[in-house]
Amino acid sequence: xxxxxxxxxxxxxxxxxxxxxxxxxxxxxxxxxxxxxxxxxxxxxxxxxxxxxxxxxxxxxxxxxxxxxxxxxxxxxxxxxxxxxxxxxxxxxxxxxxxxxxxxxxxxxxxxxxxxxxxxxxxxxxxxxxxxxxxxxxxxxxxxxxxxxxx
Length: 151
What we know:
Structural class: alpha/beta
Largest sheet: 6 strands, mixed
Number of strands: 6
Low-confidence stretches: none
Radius of gyration: 15 Å
Order of helices and strands: EHEEHEHEEHH
Shape: globular
Strand content: 15-25%
Mean pLDDT: 91
């Protein structure tokens, strides 16, 4: 299993959790962003800088991800694409996107986009809480543990 991170929108605190987990489990972690990112010196951690532009980082992840890999993203369309390729998708708040729930998440996203386009304020996401961070770390540990047992 490799971990791919849609890093442009990934909170720093989540990246730090990922860095520790990658080093601890010796799992290849790649951050993909349209800007240069600082990463710790580790043979398991790297970053890929892509050109700026709409969905460029997402497209790079979709091209590189393989079945069984894990993608960290809050981008629901990206999550849907990697699930179709047989990968796992986890958002930074610890919600695992699955074949069973991704369609409803896409529908809700599209509905909110329609509301915003018509001028209705839908508000943004709440600030990342300590329980969000803990939920993410727990879900990540569960996924990495399951992957280790398969090896």
